[in-house]
Amino acid sequence: MSRRESPPPPSPPPQLLGVRSGEVERDDRPERAEPLSDAEREIIQNTWGHVYKNCEDVGVSVLIRFFINFPSAKQYFSQFEDMEDPEEMERSSQLRHHACRVMNAINTVVENLHDPEKVSSVLALVGKAHAIKHKVEPMYFKILSGVILEVFAEDFPEFFPTEVQMVWTKLMGAVYWHVTGAYTDVGWLQVSSSAV
């Protein structure tokens, strides 16, 4: 596999530090994702119902915030990489389509929380596609997870008190663990800053 040479992305916010550009956390990676308890799965499924009712709008809000706060992420999306204006992004049918894909992937995970093998399989496909076909640096999944949690908490404060946010953080950690595992499985190569 060839290395992708691209400009380094901006530094992630402090709460998302821990992964550097092009790097899958091999040394710090736990042997497995921390499993969710039955009560945690129920919390996630109950709160997800409120979010998923507005799936397209929430997904668009997530992607707009992601691209505004981390514009280097747009390099992987030729159809809207030159968009700067949030209103233009909101009107973009391509962005809306990708927002729905992201939200539907989360929906598949949430609907299958009772089946860890299915969740692992779905996230492995997502990870492999983003590693091999799209060559997206894995740290963007960690950043996107943080943006998703921020938007959920802000848009649905009545359903996302601190305790619920902690459960969702645990889920997003598991999602990141599975996705980056797929990167490791396909032999993702670290891009050193000196290569750029």
TrEMBL record:
UniProt biased composition (Basic and acidic residues): 22-37
Region listing for Disordered, in residue ranges: 1-37
UniProt KW Transport keyword: yes
Protein name (record): superoxide dismutase
Role noted for this protein: Probable multifunctional globin with a hexacoordinated heme iron required for the catalysis of various reactions depending on redox condition of the cell as well as oxygen availability. Has a nitric oxide dioxygenase (NOD) activity and is most probably involved in cell-mediated and oxygen-dependent nitric oxide consumption. Under normoxic conditions functions as a nitric oxide dioxygenase (NOD) but under hypoxic conditions the globin may switch its function to that of a nitrite (NO2) reductase (NiR), generating nitric oxide.
Subunit structure: Monomeric.
Domain Globin as annotated: residue spans: 35-184
